[in-house]
Amino acid sequence: MSGFIGSYRFLAVSGEQAGGSADSGTTMYIFVDCSRDLGNFWSFLTTSVGVSALGLGLVLVLSLILSRVAVKPIVTGYERQKRFITDASHEIKTPLSVIDAAVEVIEIEHGEDEWSRSIHDQVARLAALTGRLVTLARIDEGGVLEMGMVGISALTERSVSTFQAVAETRGQQLTADIAAGFTCRGDATALAQVLELLLDNATRYTPEGGVISVMLRARGHGVELTVANTCDTLPNGDLDRLFERFYRPDASRSAETGGSGIGLSVVRSVAEAHGGTATVERRGEHEIAFIVRLP
Known about the structure:
Layout: E1 2-5, E2 8-14, E3 27-33, H1 35-110, H2 114-140, E4 148-150, H3 152-169, E5 173-178, E6 184-186, H4 188-205, E7 211-219, E8 222-230, H5 251-257, H6 263-273, E9 277-282, E10 287-294
Parallel strand pairs: 5-7
Antiparallel strand pairs: 1-2, 2-3, 4-6, 7-8, 8-10, 9-10
Helix pairs in contact: 1-2, 2-6, 3-4, 4-6
């Protein structure tokens, strides 16, 4: 038998092993003072742990300093980009208003023609684009939403009613299944913009004779809004890229429909600013659905 008692190591030896008789029944205990060796061990262990901790701390501090230095140009560039978008968007609004007003004066004097109508259309398109850019920049900069209780059911019904005529003129069928009486906490203006953008996107990319369906229902403690539409062909690859800013899977098709590639980015940004999500999914070979979930 052997072991430690304090700083002493001991060994128990029977009388026979110690040179006595086998039947003496005696046991000899041998003690060795190991305090010096133990002291050296604990000193080495403490020093090793201390040096390791100090080295790890220095590496962490250096990593933080170097990462800030490396990331600073990126952060600065991103902040400048956001300020530029906001400033440029506000600056563009004034000349657009002037152009639109000047065209109206020309129409009064010389009458309306295809060129003046085209100018009006492009001015409206640029105005909508700048408004969406301002919304994105405001959310990116942590702009405070005017939160309150919103009648999401009534808001959805109004948006569907507004786009009903648009769908009919394009030969599309717009259907709605909206649960009544639902409310959620949010910014009414921002949520109305989400509905407008989703319905505008659906009417732009649904072919003549296609179907657009809007559904609002409860999901857990929140609500789920789904806007689905049929289309000739679905984009290839990851559909989630549709939420990327200025991403357009088919540039020629987007140019034909007047898409800018910014609307769905606004949808996701507004949804996330409300603590929700915005996703997209395929439904068969010719249907796509955008789903916004709000708490």
